[in-house]
Design goal:
heterodimer, A: 9 strands, B: six-stranded mixed β-sheet, four-stranded antiparallel β-sheet, globular
Chain lengths: ~110, ~110
């Protein structure tokens, strides 16, 4: 089973700053099958990025995904107040399990 | 507008059973693969189960295999999760999610406690 490890666990930044979140896989993950989600308190997760770098419908272009193999990155170019939340990466695709990383909490500094 | 509405959660005793339902609308349910994902209180996300659009292919996480059964009724645009032999560690919010994880319901809370 592929394990996804996200870092850092918590990231403290100010609005307007750039956020870089990491997701490392224990084995190679096809770029087609790496997704990122945002979750705010009391809400369901929201798909941000699929296929490692494609933005989901309605996602602002300040969110971008990159990476390949075992190392993937979610970048938020300039933080808005509504971006402070928990972010998860996930390996999805053709064969389960569709594991999630443990999450990175992005908090206001 | 895509809507996924879960129901059936509640308090159940250990070793008890519960059946979750998910009513889908706003899309052609019969053509979509579907998943259940859960989240224990204060914890991260855990994929639970997958079912293909026809119901012919089903997968489970090891943590629920042999205890949970996923099913669907395309005529009713509904997804189900039959949960048996429940344990305290099954306590979580259960989300109904489309196959590409692009649409999520708001979840239903299952609490397993005596």
């Amino acid at each position: 089973e592929i394990v996804l490890t996200q870092s850092p666990g918590t990231l403290s930044l100010s609005p307007g700053e750039r956020a870089t979140l990491s997701c490392r896989a224990s084995q190679t993950v096809s770029s087609s099958y790496l997704a990122w989600y945002q979750q705010k308190p009391g809400q369901a997760p929201r798909l941000l990025i699929y296929g490692a770098s494609s933005r989901a419908t309605g996602i602002p272009d300040r969110f971008s995904g990159s990476g390949s193999g075992t190392d993937f990155t979610l970048t938020i170019s300039r933080l808005e107040p509504e971006d402070f939340a928990v972010y998860y990466c996930q390996r999805c695709g053709s064969s389960p399990p569709y594991t999630f990383g443990q999450g990175t909490k992005l908090e206001i500094k | 507008e895509v809507q996924l509405v879960e129901s059936g959660g509640g308090l159940v005793q250990p070793r008890g059973s519960l059946r979750l339902s998910c009513a889908a609308s706003g899309f052609t349910f019969s053509t979509y693969e579907m998943n259940w994902v859960r989240q224990a209180p204060g914890k991260g996300l855990e994929w639970v189960s997958y079912i293909s659009s026809s119901g012919s292919t089903i997968y489970y996480a090891d943590s629920v295999k042999g205890r949970f059964t996923i099913s669907r009724d395309n005529a009713k645009s509904s997804l189900y999760l039959q949960m048996n032999s429940l344990r305290a560690e099954d306590t979580a919010v259960y989300y109904c999610v489309t196959g590409y994880f692009d649409y999520w319901g708001q979840g239903t809370l299952v609490t397993v406690s005596s």
